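Pinned message: reference record for Ribosome production factor 2 homolog
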Amino acid sequence: MLRTVKPRNARSKRVLEKREPKVIENPKKTLFLRGTSASELVQTALNDIHSLKKPLTIKFTKKNAIHPFEDSTPLEFFSQKNDTSLVLFASHSKKRPHNLTFLRTFSHRTLDIFEFSLDPDTFLPLSAFKNQKPIIGMKPMLLFCGAPWDSNARLQALKSLFMDFFKGPTVDRVDVEGLQYIIQFSTPEIPPQTEVAGEAGPAPKIHIRAYLLRSLRSGQKLPRIELEEMGPRMDLTLRRVREPEDEMWKEAMKKAKKVEPRTKKNVTMDVMGDKLGRIHTGKQDLNKLQSRKMKGLKRGKDDGEMVVGEEDELVEKVKKTRRE
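Predicted structure (tokens):
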């Protein structure tokens, strides 16, 4: 259990209030740290991912004797202390070389953990690509290639992790000039017998590529877009997974009532973004319609119909004769 901290002064009270749950949460920060032993390969990968996620990052430089799957309490402590929701941990050992561990927290408690092996043969850092890099703080576009991202339960959870990890701050509008790079996640097809979660089979391999968007002249109004690889180039193989508990996952997926917009009846939006409304009116009785009173519009007795008000006069005459 994490201890509850009581504010000692007004400054610490304001800091704690910023960390409290909100209807619209703050952008998720990521904590980067390494274990007691980490190869140069995973340290380079750690630094490259840290460069892509700036400025929503916190990086530790000292070694940490942490084993996330055996005991994730130290990472929960660092998450609460630094107000970070995501953790990337780099380590290296003889049993698990070139190891990268992604961890998500909910209310600073461990939600799920994914451990990957970084392929040293295909890895290329940012420095290997001699081109411009995106401006710090730009939101990337995320592209998931492959049917298993939607059909395999394990990869669906992994897709949710990558979207949380790389999406950046939530914004209402995006300027076209701000779309500077794209991150692609691809995976090969998984045999049908291994698509069921928990069934033995080969570990899925994830290919991560990052591309710059180049706008070139096309002779028309719209420019021609080309992709230029900017790095890092990483191939990750899934090793171990700790799935979230059902109760915690259900609690984490809850949405505040104020966030969900109220549905308006009979109001829709078309493809062009125009608001359309439907009005329901009751059945209209034309006999009771009030029109301009003119003698020329009245119907006489010869027309086969009574003049307006004549029917009431006739009923009164019949009642009067009965009384007499």
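Pinned by admin. Summary line: The chain has seven helices and twelve strands.
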